[in-house]
Write a structure and sequence with these properties.
single chain, mainly alpha, 21 helices, globular, binds phenylalanine
């Protein structure tokens, strides 16, 4: 942070990498393959890509634009543009979503830290068979102390980065870590191409399979698009507030969405060939990458070192995302009440940690948040957090942000901000039409359908 209050990114590249740092995370490497596996593959992926381009991208532009115009975090941004109005609720919805997402995200990130430890101690090679490597994950999620401990460790790391003010830290790290992760994934895809299961995997990911596709998969695709792009809760709005005035927004957003989608697809092209080659279940759920990736490395020459590097990079990808979640919560209270950064950060970080404990215990057999809750409600506490935030809160937030940008804010302000610093100003009308019609309608229909209201009325299935 510079002396003059809010900082800015040093360059467009800085913003793109930091925003991509927020976008690219466990959502791409862990969540995308596992949700794709559960949702039946190809058709889900196609719908996901369409949603990313036609709904995610315009919404991202809207969010970044709101942030840059107001130079504020979400609640304050709505306050600046609309005063005391129900729109403040959209900002608060985002803060709540940030809170909830970080509470379970940190648990998964904790697992990745444990996997660095397992890789360093050569546990995968010692385990030997694919089954034994899989059992390591099952043992981890069933262990309350390990889960809570790693969750605490990861929250402490996140809080300590955000404590220092994020700009220089995030920007500098993202510039090194994002390209490293990308190269690493490319290398792994190259390895996967030669696995016997590659053909089956490619067909699973890219060929439309109607059988496994349900309307629930459409909701899951929408949720995954929002989760992966860090949309609908003000993360992009907050990062946009640090964007220099002379940088064009549409092209930056396109870059972020392209990087994010490419990395998600590359991850699935690494995970599924392994899954099929070793006779594993694509619908294995949250443990999917924690089982498949170490199996691949344990078979590879040089796998020991590569496996360490891989999980270290995943931890870093998780950190560049978790700090954006913590930053939304933190900057919100700083902007609104003028509280000190360190006070806000430590307090909210501690609350998020406590709130995440039930998620950390969701795999523990004797815990009420795990199997018991699942028997009653079909989901563990962890699953509920994931499902409610990604599938409902983020799309709803995105819908309201699109409506606000499309219909509520000052027109000339909007046009000026969109066209500033870009040669892509000609796309303004097209973007606006998407915001007016397609984005709200599509999100509304998917959410409404998923509430079952349409079914009750006898419309749709
Ligand atoms: N996009 C991040 C990921 O893919 C998660 C995230 C969601 C971050 C929402 C910020 C806001 O891992």
């Amino acid at each position: 942070m510079t002396g003059k209050g809010r900082g800015t990114w040093a360059s467009r590249l800085g913003f793109v990498l930091a925003a991509a740092g927020s976008a690219v995370g466990l959502g791409n490497i862990w969540r995308f393959p596992y949700v794709t596996g559960k949702s039946g593959g190809g058709l889900f992926v196609a719908v996901y890509i369409v949603f990313t381009v036609l709904i995610g991208l315009p919404t991202m532009i809207a969010e970044v634009l709101l942030g840059r115009t107001t130079q504020s975090s979400p609640v304050k941004a709505f306050h600046k543009l609309r005063g005391r109005s129900p729109w403040l609720g959209v900002g608060w919805l985002g803060v709540a979503a940030g809170f909830m997402i970080l509470s379970f995200y940190s648990v998964v990130a904790g697992w990745t830290i444990h996997y660095v430890y397992l890789a360093v101690t050569n546990a995968f090679e010692v385990a030997g068979s694919a089954d034994n490597i899989g059992a390591l994950f099952d043992a981890l999620v069933a262990n309350p102390w390990a889960n809570v401990g790693y969750h605490l460790l990861f929250m402490s790391i996140t809080v300590s980065v955000v404590l220092g003010g994020v700009q220089s830290g995030i920007e500098r790290w993202s510039k090194i870590l994002m390209p490293a992760l990308f190269l690493m994934l490319l290398g792994l895809v190259f390895y996967s191409i030669f696995l016997p299961g590659f053909g089956k995997a490619a067909s699973f990911v890219f060929a439309p399979h109607m059988e496994a596709f349900t309307f629930g998969s459409v909701l899951a695709a929408l949720g995954q698009a929002f989760f992966s792009l860090s949309l609908g809760m003000g993360a992009m709005l907050t990062y946009g507030s640090y964007l220099p005035k002379e940088t064009g927004i549409p092209k930056s957003a396109l870059w972020v969405a392209t990087l994010d989608t490419t990395i998600a697809l590359l991850s699935s092209l690494v995970v599924f060939p392994i899954t099929f080659s070793f006779g594993m279940e694509p619908a294995a759920g949250p443990g999917l990458i924690f089982k498949s990736i170490p199996i691949a490395f344990s078979q590879m020459p040089g796998g020991y070192v590569l496996c360490i590097i891989f999980f270290v990079l995943v931890v870093f990808a998780a950190i560049t995302s978790s700090i954006s979640l913590q930053e939304v919560v933190t900057s919100n209270f700083i902007d609104l009440f003028g509280w000190r950064r360190w006070k806000v950060c430590l307090t909210t970080g501690a609350i998020i940690f406590v709130f995440g404990v039930p998620s950390a215990l969701s795999g523990v057999p004797s815990s009420p948040f795990g199997p018991l809750l699942k028997a009653l409600t079909d989901r563990t506490f962890f699953d509920w957090m994931d499902y409610l935030t990604a599938n409902w809160m983020l799309p709803l937030g995105g819908l309201l942000i699109a409506v606000f940008t499309g219909f509520v804010i000052d027109r000339s302000l909007r046009r000026e901000e969109f066209k500033r610093g870009t040669t892509w100003g000609g796309l303004y009308g097209f973007w606006l039409v998407l915001l007016w019609v397609l984005v709200p309608t599509a999100i509304f229909v998917v959410l409404l359908q998923s509430t079952g209201v349409l079914g009750l009325l006898g419309i749709g299935g």
